[in-house]
């Protein structure tokens, strides 16, 4: 072999120096990962033991040695301050103090007492004055607030009924309440007998409650008996006239916020002809601007005739009693 050939052979890498295969690389990586995990576990265990040993004394002592700063950092990361208990809360942090509701109540309480005194002792409309609780952007400056029912509802004998009016109140509970007020007003305009309104099953609320489940039917009928006739259901002779099928009764569709003249001119003739009509849906179907006697009737329904059913009243009384008993401001007394 020539000198050049021998040198070239010597410079060649032996076969064992060649790059190992894929399996060897994978095994090495697994071994390195296992070693790192073991070291991390051992380091964490060591720091835990040192932290537990030094938690009762000085961290910079001889037991800590040179690991004092490291243990201090580890302890600050590991140990967290426990959540404060209600007993540790400052004495001034009363319930509702975050929203200052107790301060608002203190500010409004004198006006509430003043209004209650006026309402119970003085019935004359001239004595009804404005207070901080009775404000509205619809109120003209300087005009007093007066109950809309007082002195505006005549209680003469009702004339014979022109027929039966049925309505279907749709929307949420608040819209249904407004619809009931409008329905009584429309029944008065038409001199009709109002059938207890039905509530449309809303696809959003999915509440199957009927009128009697929410409001006191007997109180509703009794309160309105001198102004509008109200019955719980259609008489048998009227149902027989329409083959006991409510859908056979003509539905007088009306536009939103229709005027009183619209009902007198368009709905009343059909009512006199058939003896019964229905309006569905019935939401915001009467104009806001109506004669004062009609508006007073709306107020009578809203503030007097519509009373919650007995189960709801019992529950509400219990809730009020609990809040009064636990009140921090009044010591369990309302007045």
From TrEMBL:
What are the alphabetically sorted keywords of the record? Carbohydrate metabolism, Fucose metabolism, Glycosyltransferase, Membrane, Transferase, Transmembrane, Transmembrane helix
Can you tell which superkingdom this protein's organism belongs to? Answer: Eukaryota
InterPro entries assigned: FucosylTrfase_pln, GDP-Fuc_O-FucTrfase
GO biological process, alphabetically ordered? fucose metabolic process
Keyword Transferase included in the entry's annotation: yes
Q: Does the record carry Glycosyltransferase as a key word?
A: yes
Transmembrane portions of the chain: 30-50
A Pfam family recorded for this sequence: O-FucT
According to the UniProt entry, its GO molecular function terms are: glycosyltransferase activity
- Can you tell me which family this protein belongs to? Belongs to the glycosyltransferase GT106 family.
The record, for PANTHER family, names:
O-FUCOSYLTRANSFERASE FAMILY PROTEIN
Protein name, please?
Answer: O-fucosyltransferase family protein
Q: Which gene encodes it?
A: LOC100193539
